[in-house]
Amino acid sequence: MTVKKYKRIFGIVMDSVGTGEAPDAAKFGDVGSDTLGHVGEAYQGKLQIPNLQKLGISNLRQTAIEGVDKVTSPIGYYGKMQEISAGKDSMDGHWEMMGLPVEKPLNTFPNGFPEEILKKLADFSGRKIIGNRPESGTKIIAELGEQQMKTGDLIVYTSGDSVLQIAAHEDVIPLEELYKICEYARTLVNGPKYTVGRIIARPYVGQDKDHFTRTANRHDFTLEPTGTTDLDDLQKAGVHTVGIGKINDIFSGHGIDEGYHNESNMDGMDHVDHVMAEDFTGFCFTNLVDFDAMYGHRRNPIGFGQALMDFDKRLGTVLKNLKDDDLLLITADHGNDPGFKGTDHTRELVPLLAYSPSMQHAGSLGIRKTFADFGATVLDNFNVAGNGVGDSFLADLK
């Protein structure tokens, strides 16, 4: 049997768009989480995502998203993926997709960061530390932002994930200085005593707590990949790799030939359109973070649903511009259920949608045992050997 190969693969990660609790959700306190299900319920049947619908976004679920019926004849293949990594952060999800599951849990700080880390940060920056607890970013900035503006202190906080976040007003601490402080913080938690997945610079603007807004100048300083990823293997084999959005940060630039920073989901889709217009052979990997950063963590299902509908409209352009030798893969890196308790990511299965105009059939890809099947499929397409993690579903796409 001849397996169809594609000249270009476009992978789009809808950051945090989970589709129901994972089998191990109880370990994370996430039983009952369902990002897409709860967004649909919030819209009371009025969620309109026709392009995702015809790709099979509801067909992959036991129960359809409210207002988004299952379709009799999806135009492509649909399924779900299960995470095997120890955590439920963006880094874990993306690394696993690229063949590097995070097997050892990274450090989290439910009681705040230890004094030894804070003292080093304060000494390096010459600034005092305030906050130091797990908290919603918008909430802690509303609470401490005015103080930070007056004193020049650093707002340090975390979440349920392995992250150290530093917030500062752009007019008080210039971006260059904030990034420099975050780069130093990165050196403090690379192990062995403390190993943190991401240091996140969280700049904001506004003149008072009622008007503070976090800006697109966020920057993630991620733990260097602890091994070779599928991106590295693709690059070494001469396959052109493009990273859009957080991809470059998540992989610390490794294995990426061409990178684009996103100001928003729509800016990210502008970059996708731009790359699609180029003539190249390779893999374009995109992360769209607004679902997560702007709506999931803030537990805003209405905003989340609007972001899905906005993305769906832009997806229509992508579908129209795909060539016969292009393959589109859409998935997510974890859940962040805006209808669930707390403000942290949720351990969920994630959608898997695959489409090319040249496909002659459609159907289910089932539940993939690991996110790594995504990257294994990309490697298989370009005849690149990886580390053996994950099973390709390329032969199932007919």
TrEMBL record:
One of its GO terms (biological process) is 5-phosphoribose 1-diphosphate biosynthetic process. Gene3D superfamilies: Alkaline Phosphatase, subunit A, Phosphopentomutase. It catalyses: alpha-D-ribose 1-phosphate = D-ribose 5-phosphate; 2-deoxy-alpha-D-ribose 1-phosphate = 2-deoxy-D-ribose 5-phosphate. Pathway: Carbohydrate degradation; 2-deoxy-D-ribose 1-phosphate degradation; D-glyceraldehyde 3-phosphate and acetaldehyde from 2-deoxy-alpha-D-ribose 1-phosphate: step 1/2. Binds 2 manganese ions. InterPro entries: Alkaline_phosphatase_core_sf (IPR017850), DeoB (IPR010045), Metalloenzyme (IPR006124), Phosphopentomutase_DeoB_cap_sf (IPR024052). Its cofactor is Mn(2+). It comes from the Bacteria. Keywords: Cytoplasm, Isomerase, Manganese, Metal-binding. One of its GO terms (molecular function) is manganese ion binding. GO terms for cellular component: cytosol. Mn(2+) 2 binds at residues 292, 297, 345. Signal peptide: none annotated. The keyword Cytoplasm applies. Its main location: cytoplasm. Mn(2+) 1 binds at residues 15, 333-334. Belongs to the phosphopentomutase family. HAMAP family: Phosphopentomut (MF_00740). Isomerase that catalyzes the conversion of deoxy-ribose 1-phosphate (dRib-1-P) and ribose 1-phosphate (Rib-1-P) to deoxy-ribose 5-phosphate (dRib-5-P) and ribose 5-phosphate (Rib-5-P), respectively. This is Phosphopentomutase. The gene is deob3.
